[in-house]
Specification:
With 550 residues, this protein is an alpha/beta fold. The protein contains 20 helices and 17 strands. The chain is 43% helix and 15% strand. It is elongated, with a radius of gyration of 26 Å.
Length: 550
C-alpha cells in the first residue's frame, strides 16, 4: 500500500538542497532541512528566503503564501529531528564516503518503512544503499538545477530497491509537478551521462584556447537554441560538483571523454567554484549571483584594428546556407552578386563566399577558379562544414585571405550563427573584417580554429552519438532520453528528434569526420546509427528514422 507522506527531510541545504526544500514546502509538505553547522544552515535558509522572495516580487506567490511556506520548514542542525519524516532526500556534496556516512546515520534515525533517497548525480546508489541495514528502501531521486524550476526527476532503482519504494517516489515526484522517469543505477543516469561529456569537451575547448568562453557559449545558445552556454552552465552547476560527477563517471566507465579536463581542477583548487563562490569560468558580482561582471578575459567591445571596407559580396553556389546568407546580406544592403559557378561577375567583389557542395574536389576547384578571377586583396570564404578550410586556402595563392564562414541557422533565436574559422594562415584583419560583415548582416559571429566540427558540430554530434549508444544499450527508450534532455537540461529538442530532423546520414558523416580527426574510442560512430543509415532510415526526409514520420 502506498505510504502517506506528509513530512519530508532534506539533508544538506546547499545549491540543490535549498531548491528541493522549497519544492516540497511549496507543494504543501512539512520539511525538515538539516545542515552540518549554523553558518551553513543560515546560508541554506537564506537561499530559500531569497528564492521565494523573488517569486513574490515576480507575482508568482503572495507574501502570505511565502510566510506559510517558510513556516512549513524546520531548519536544524540536529539530524534526530528527521525521525518524524516518511521520506528523506539527501543532498550533501558528491563524495561517496560522506553520503554513505549520512545514510548509515539516517538508517538509525527514521522508522523502518521510511524511504531514504539520494540526490546523487553520478555515484552508485547501490553503494550508498548498502551503508544501511535496509537497502531495499533506498532509491535515487535526482532533481535538476534549479530544482524549483526544472520539471524533470530521475527515479533511480537499484537491483534491491523495493517496487513500492519506486512507485511512492514516482508518485511524490508527480505531486511536485515533475515529470519522473525511472532508470537503473548507472553512472550519470540518463541526463548527466549525456550532458557531462559535452560540458567537459566545452571546458577543454576553452582550456586549449580553441575559442573564447563567450564564443563557445554563444555558439551553443545561438546555433542550437540552448538556454545557456556550456561554460555558464558549468558555473551554475558548480565546478566542484561538476568535477566530482565527471571523476565518478570516468572511474566507472573509463571513457577518456569523461576524464575531467585539468582546468576544472585548477579552478576548484583556486576556490573558483562557479556562481556559488562568485567566480568560475566567468566572474559574478557576488557569490550566488547570476550577474556576470567584466574581468580581464571579457572582450572590450572596441572595434578591432584593421577592419577592411566591404561593400560588394559575391556568393557562389545555391546551397541552403547560400540562400540564407544572401538574404541576410541583401537585407543589410550589401551589393550582392550571386552565381552558380565562378564567373568574372565576382571579379570586383570585396568578399566572395563559396557555398557549393560540401565535398573536397568541388571546393578546391572553386577556390582555384576564384583565386584566378578575384581582385587582389579580396577575401575568399567557404561555408564548408566537412572540408577543412585550409584545404580550400591551399588551392589559392592567397591563403592569408581565406577564412571559413560556417553558417548555422539560428534555432529559437532570431539570428543566424556564423563560425568564423581561422586557419593557420588566415590574417587577423581578415577574421576581424568577416566578423564585422556578419554583425552588419544581423548574424552572430564566433571565432574558432580550423578543426573538425568547429564549435557547434564538435560539441553537438558526439552527444547525439552517445544518446544512440545509450538507446542501443537498452538503458532507456528514445522517448525517455528526449524527455530527460528537454526537461532535465532544458534543451529545445531531445537528441532523437534532432537526429531525425538533421538526417541520420548527415549525423553519421559528421561523427565519422570527428572520429577520423580525434580517434577517441568514445567518438566511434554508434553501430545502431551505421545500421539505420545502411537500411535507409535517414530520419524525417525518408519518413523513418528513430521514429516514423508522416
Ligand atoms: N549542483 C547541481 O547542479 C546538481 C544537480 C543535481 C544533483 N546534484 C547533486 O546534489 C548533491 C549536492 O550538490 P550541491 O551542488 O547542492 O552541493 P553544495 O555544495 O552546494 O551543497 C551541499 C550542502 O551539504 C552540506 N553538508 C555537507 N555535509 C553535510 C552533513 N554531514 N550534513 C548536512 N549537510 C551537509 C553543505 O554544508 C552544503 O550546504 C550532490 O550529490 C550533487 O551531485 C547537484
Amino acid at each position: 500500500m502506498a505510504r502517506e507522506i506528509t513530512t519530508v527531510g532534506v539533508v544538506g541545504i546547499g545549491t540543490m538542497g535549498a531548491g528541493i526544500t522549497e519544492v516540497f514546502a511549496r507543494n504543501g509538505f512539512f520539511v525538515v532541512g538539516v545542515e552540518q553547522d549554523q553558518a551553513a544552515l543560515h546560508r541554506g535558509r537564506g537561499h530559500v528566503e531569497t528564492s521565494t522572495g523573488r517569486a513574490v516580487r515576480r507575482g508568482k506567490m503572495s507574501a502570505a503564501e511565502q510566510s506559510q511556506l517558510l513556516e512549513r520548514i524546520t531548519f536544524t542542525t540536529d539530524m534526530d529531528v528527521l525521525a518524524a519524516c516518511q521520506l528523506v532526500v539527501e543532498a550533501v556534496p558528491e563524495h561517496r564516503d560522506l553520503k554513505r556516512d549520512v545514510f548509515a546515520r539516517l538508517d538509525k534515525i527514521v522508522t523502518p518503512d521510511a524511504i531514504l533517497a539520494t540526490n546523487t548525480s553520478s555515484l552508485s546508489v547501490t553503494e550508498i544503499s548498502v551503508a544501511t541495514e535496509l537497502p531495499r528502501r533506498v532509491v535515487g531521486m535526482h532533481f535538476f538545477n534549479p530544482a524549483p524550476v526544472q520539471e524533470f526527476v530521475e527515479v533511480v532503482r537499484t537491483v534491491v530497491t523495493d517496487d513500492d519504494v519506486v512507485e511512492d517516489v514516482t508518485a511524490i515526484a508527480r505531486r511536485l509537478g515533475k515529470a519522473p522517469v525511472e532508470c537503473r543505477d548507472r553512472a550519470g543516469f540518463i541526463a548527466n551521462a549525456l550532458l557531462f561529456g559535452y560540458l567537459n569537451h566545452a571546458a577543454s575547448m576553452y582550456e586549449t584556447r580553441y575559442a573564447s568562453r563567450e564564443d563557445i557559449d554563444d555558439a551553443m545558445r545561438v546555433g542550437c537554441g540552448y538556454p545557456m552556454g556550456p561554460l555558464a552552465l558549468l558555473d551554475l552547476i558548480g565546478l566542484d560538483t561538476a568535477y566530482e560527477i565527471l571523476e565518478t563517471m570516468y572511474r566507472q566507465g573509463r571513457d577518456r571523454l569523461h576524464a575531467p579536463t585539468p582546468i576544472l581542477k585548477q579552478l576548484v583548487t583556486a576556490g573558483f567554484r562557479g556562481r556559488k563562490s562568485g567566480r568560475g569560468f566567468y566572474t559574478y558580482d557576488k557569490p550566488d549571483s547570476p550577474v556576470v561582471v567584466a574581468d580581464t578575459a571579457t572582450p572590450t567591445g572596441a572595434p578591432p584594428a584593421g577592419v577592411r571596407e566591404v561593400r560588394s559580396v559575391g556568393v557562389v553556389g545555391s546551397s541552403d546556407p547560400a540562400a540564407r546568407i544572401v538574404e541576410n546580406l541583401v537585407q543589410a544592403r550589401f551589393d550582392v552578386t550571386t552565381v552558380d559557378v565562378v564567373t568574372p561577375a565576382v571579379t570586383g567583389a570585396d568578399l566572395v563566399v563559396e557555398a557549393v557542395a560540401d565535398e573536397l574536389s568541388a571546393k578546391r576547384e572553386v577556390f582555384t577558379a576564384l583565386d584566378a578571377v578575384c581582385k587582389p586583396g579580396a577575401i575568399l570564404a567557404t561555408t564548408s562544414s566537412l572540408v577543412p578550410v585550409i584545404a580550400c586556402a591551399a588551392s589559392t595563392s592567397r591563403a592569408a585571405n581565406v577564412v571559413g564562414t560556417h553558417m548555422v541557422a539560428g534555432v529559437a533565436v532570431d539570428r543566424d550563427l556564423v563560425e568564423v574559422v581561422r586557419t593557420v594562415s588566415t590574417a587577423d584583419d581578415v577574421v576581424a573584417t568577416v566578423r564585422s560583415v556578419c554583425r552588419r548582416a544581423g548574424m552572430h559571429p564566433v571565432t574558432c580554429g580550423d578543426r573538425a566540427g568547429f564549435i557547434v558540430n564538435a560539441l553537438l554530434f558526439p552527444y547525439l552519438n552517445d544518446a544512440v549508444k545509450m538507446l542501443e544499450a537498452q538503458y532507456a527508450t528514445a522517448d525517455d532520453i528526449d524527455t530527460a534532455m528537454r526537461l532535465g537540461c532544458r534543451l529545445p529538442t531531445g537528441p532523437f528528434q534532432v537526429l531525425d530532423d538533421v538526417g541520420l546520414d548527415t549525423a553519421l558523416a559528421i561523427q565519422r569526420m570527428l572520429y577520423a580527426e580525434f580517434p577517441e574510442p568514445g567518438y566511434a560512430p554508434a553501430p545502431l546509427l551505421e545500421n539505420l543509415v545502411t537500411a535507409g532510415f535517414l530520419g524525417r526526409k525518408t519518413g523513418r528514422g528513430f521514429r516514423d514520420h508522416a
